[in-house]
Amino acid sequence: MTRALRTVISPGRYVQGRGAIHQLGDYLKPLGASPLIIADDLVWGLVGRDVEASLKAAGLPVARERSRGIPSAGEVDRLVAAIEAAGADVAVAVGGGSTIDAVKAAGHLAGIRWANCPTVASTDAPCSALSVIYTESGEFEEYRFFPRNPDLVLVDSQVVADAPVATLVAGVGDALATWLEARATAQSNSPTMAGGLPTLTGTALAQLSWDVLWENALPAIDAVKDHTVTPAVEKVIEANTLLSGLGFESGGLAAAHAIHNGLTAVPHTHGVAHGQKVNIGSLTQLVLEGAPSGDIRDFITFTTRVGLPTTLTEVGLSADDEAALKKVADAATAEGETIHSMPFDVRSEDVVSALKSIERLAVRIRSEASLPTPVPHRAH
Ligand SMILES: [Zn+2]
């Protein structure tokens, strides 16, 4: 693949709306005759009956394999064996980002098609042609890239609204980063996760995701607290899942996700959701950029209102944790990390300083805006 070419990639079809899950079978039928559904017990308890009914109505057999959480290399290999044992021709992830990442990687290795039915809008994993693989203990291990995106991404908005509101909040954190990172990637004209230079399309979708969230995230979160689907909820689900998915993949990742990956390298942050850690990455990226203080203030106040962390304290760290912060920063600036897509050089010590600085900065801005003081996260 030449680095001089621009490219944009996307799933074969994206479907979203209330009750969409009842049509899962109809949309799967053109993809294969023997689907294997992969879902954990919790998700299966919530939507298993609807998935089963929809497959049966489409004349498809129902087979299910349990998902076991963290998308590790071992979990992927276990799912490949399950796909082969079932003789499946399409793997269908039903659940959150962990199940989806494991199924994409397993579907690719097994040489069959794959589809995603996210039951939460907590990450932008569903649409992309890559998986993030973690160690069994949850540390970032590698990105795996595939030659194609999922054939289908189907999201039932009511199912997403029925999930805990914290999942939608985390998804907003993941999706806000998309524009900050795509903007940096466009400035430096660096390669994106799609294997080429950014297109106007990828960059514009990232920006649209940001605009939609600033307008709709707070009312959508209010609605989801009551498990209600409103137009704002539909817009936020689309921003978190499709716009951010296309935007990060074809617009490019930069410092925010590299810092997220760095944060997974220390046990302090375990139990903090992907989108929450990404929000710390976004704020740290703004500091590294020397962004206008008004922009930084707006980002801190808005994301605090959304319910995202803006301090080290809230992700289990403190400005005094020298060794841990160095470990985070070393991992974030490792060779091949997307932080090197920033329009300037970023060294480990720059990241340590920026991370340390956000503590006092966010505490001051939150206090000036009469927003809650940080509650410490305890790793579990
Ligand atoms: Zn992400």
UniProtKB/TrEMBL annotation:
<keyword id="KW-0560">Oxidoreductase</keyword>
<keyword id="KW-0479">Metal-binding</keyword>
<dbReference type="InterPro" id="IPR018211">
    <property type="entry name" value="ADH_Fe_CS"/>
</dbReference>
<keyword id="KW-0520">NAD</keyword>
<comment type="similarity">
    <text>Belongs to the iron-containing alcohol dehydrogenase family.</text>
</comment>
<protein>
    <recommendedName>
        <fullName>Glycerol dehydrogenase</fullName>
        <ecNumber>1.1.1.6</ecNumber>
    </recommendedName>
</protein>
<dbReference type="Pfam" id="PF00465">
    <property type="entry name" value="Fe-ADH"/>
</dbReference>
<feature type="domain" description="Alcohol dehydrogenase iron-type/glycerol dehydrogenase GldA">
    <location>
        <begin position="11"/>
        <end position="156"/>
    </location>
</feature>
<dbReference type="InterPro" id="IPR016205">
    <property type="entry name" value="Glycerol_DH"/>
</dbReference>
<comment type="pathway">
    <text>Polyol metabolism; glycerol fermentation; glycerone phosphate from glycerol (oxidative route): step 1/2.</text>
</comment>
<dbReference type="InterPro" id="IPR001670">
    <property type="entry name" value="ADH_Fe/GldA"/>
</dbReference>
